[in-house]
Amino acid sequence: MKYVFDNIQAVNEFLHAKEKVILLTDFDGTLTPIQKHPDLAALSEEVRQILLKISHSRQCFLGIITGRSLQQIKKLVNIPKVLYAANYGIELEGPGIRFTSPDARKARCNLWYVYMQLFKSLRHIEGIYLEDKGLTVSLHYRLVKKARDVEFVTKTFATITRPFFEGKKLSLGTGKMVYEIRPPVAWNKATTIQWLLVNYFPLEFSEDALLVYLGDDKADIEVFEDLKGKGLTVFVGHPSDTSAADYYVNSPEEVKSFLEHIYQQKSRDNELLTEGKRTI
Question: What DSSP assignment string belongs to 110-122?
């Protein structure tokens, strides 16, 4: 895995080889730094303006792929006419699409039951945060400071959820100090993107477009592995954490610079294409 800005010429060759770009990106830890509490996450105005420019470009198609709920991510990003794939793709909304997995909806009763059991059992633990995202539930323990409390959280979580996981009534995902309880559907970020490539993206973006994906977490690493040799993937974080992506950047701050670079390169391509048509 190579550092993007040490290999920018090679990256540019990828960007210029295709007329258009499908840019898909994670949110937490990618567009914005990981916060101690999920509610503290906020998209900087600088990044929002870059995303806004990209969303208006005829050369680019922008999508946000996240574990957050649809309501949350739309409020946080606040850019119309882009694709939002929320709850790991269980909820989709964007130009020409509005979809919620019916199988995921069927699991709502089980999710709510587990949520309430976890809430009753763990509400006394300092630093615990249990998040009901409608079609998924997240148990965040990043702020739990005492080792014995972390151990209690782990054991309690396993006891409450095991029957649902073993009975395939719910499924488990993990992230950075968070347990993700999901519906028992074979649907994640990687499968969502594969479905979108076949069924959703406009024709002009499916025939001659470079797929670029940025992310920082385990769910994103699954995407990197699935897209190996099929696009340009960028991991956000220390290179020792994975080797699945093509390139890496160190932080969301560098993601901002890379997004600006993509926009500039594709704007240049558009100018050259326009000048070429005038010459003809």
Answer: HHHHHHHHHHHHH
